Amino acid sequence: MIRVSRLSKIYKIYRGPRALLGELLLGRRGHDEIRALQDVSFEIEPGESFGIVGDNGAGKSTLLKLLTGTALPTTGRVQVEGRVSALLELGTGFHPEFTGRENIQFSGALMGQTRPQIEQRLGEIIAFSELEDFIDQPVKTYSSGMFVRLGFAVATGFEPDVLIVDEALAVGDQTFQKKCTDRIVRFKRQGKTLLFCSHNLHQVRTLCRRALWLDHGSVQSLGPAESVVDAYEDTCRRRQAEGNGSAAGSPEAPGGVCRIEQVRLKPAGPGDDFEYQTGDTLRLTIESWFSPDFEGQPGVGVALVRSDGIPLYVTVTTMEGIELELDAGGRCQVELAFTDIPLLAGGYYFNVFATDQNHLQSYHAWDQAAPFSVRRKSGESGLVKLKHRWGQGT
Predict the structure, then answer these.
(1) Quick check: pTM over 0.85?
(2) What is the distance between the terminal CA atoms of the chain, rounded to a whole angstrom?
(3) How is the chain split among helix, strand and coil, in percent rounded to 5?
(4) Contact 354/287 with Cβ under 8 angstroms?
């Protein structure tokens, strides 16, 4: 259904109008080059669900534009058979001055639909978009969510042979995302071809049979979706750990009446291996200092945070009735163990801070003091592993 052969795309960035004129008239190079894609090749069989993953700037959107014909390759060849419908950037293909109804009709005509075919599907498309009250208003008055509703309804409403979906779905509300997911699943069951590009790796695993991982325009991996996504996640976690490790070389500027002086996470294995498995034990050692001028009861807090900044758990010594034993110099060392961690695959880190018995203020903090990751052990997805038991009634 889709064949891509040694595809490359280079964008020219000119230094200014004079540079462009000089290049045209004098043959003098006046531009820099950005290589968005480099020698990409793959094939997608009819009825196959195919995913594309990668960081921002990896070349995913450029590849989709080449597949849909909205951009031309620098070198290589693209072959796509059948009627293609795509949902790419927000509002792509819509005329802002046209109403929603007019844009549906216009898009249908561009897809090769006759007027009777368009009219036959018009009501269903409008109903799916849930924009009945706004369908005769210019789309320039639509919100981003309304754009997505109309865009997806149009892209899937004319029953294409190939559906290409980019990350644009991410801005829709949860209810509409569920409707879209259901329609994509139905699309798959009908034996249609799906090309799905998303940062939602769980959806890529679930929807796609195979996947392509792009990095800086080059193919890093191509194969079964499960293994490709696992490899991509492992690399992301390693980068996160390395980045956090360099950023966590020292806490915030020390001083004042207290400070966190050192945080150590016991490695998962020999050497500096901070990649754990669900069910392992995490052991933190924290060294802190409190001056004689510190008012109140000294306390140390620890926050477990996911790599995207979402806090998962916070514990403080003063909240749990633990009194820190300071030496003559005002220093103390405490250990904290999280046994049988329920965390599933992902990147995480600990924030450590000094506080008092009111634990309302962080006097001194060490952000991303101990980064680590949990590797994938089973097919389970989500954030944590919950104890459960399946049963069947009689």
Answers:
(1) no
(2) 48
(3) 30, 35, 40
(4) no
Residue-wise pLDDT for 138-175, tens only, equals 999 998 888 888 888 888 888 888 988 886 555 556 67
- CB-neighbour burial class of residue 294 (10 A; exposed 0-12, middle 13-18, buried 19+): middle
What's the pLDDT at 4?
94
Helix (DSSP H) and strand (DSSP E) numbers for the chain: 8, 17
Neighbours of 103 (CB within 10 A): 23
Most distant CA atoms of the chain, gap in Å: 89
Tokens of 351: 């924030």
Spatial distance between the Cα atoms of 385 and 341, rounded to a whole number of angstroms: 9
Q: What is the DSSP string of 269-311?
A: BTTTB-EE-TT--EEEEEEEEE-TT--S--EEEEEEEETTS-E
Give the position of tokens 């490790």. 245
Q: CA torsion sign, 318 to 323 to 328 to 333?
A: negative
Sign of the torsion angle spanned by Cα atoms 385, 386, 388, 390? negative
User: How far apart (Å, rounded) are the C-alpha atoms in residues 243 and 253?
Assistant: 19
DSSP track, 51-94: EEE--TTSSHHHHHHHHHTSS--SEEEEEE-S-EEEE-STTTT-
Q: Which two tokens stand for residue 214?
A: 């792009």
Per-residue pLDDT at 221 exceeds 70: yes
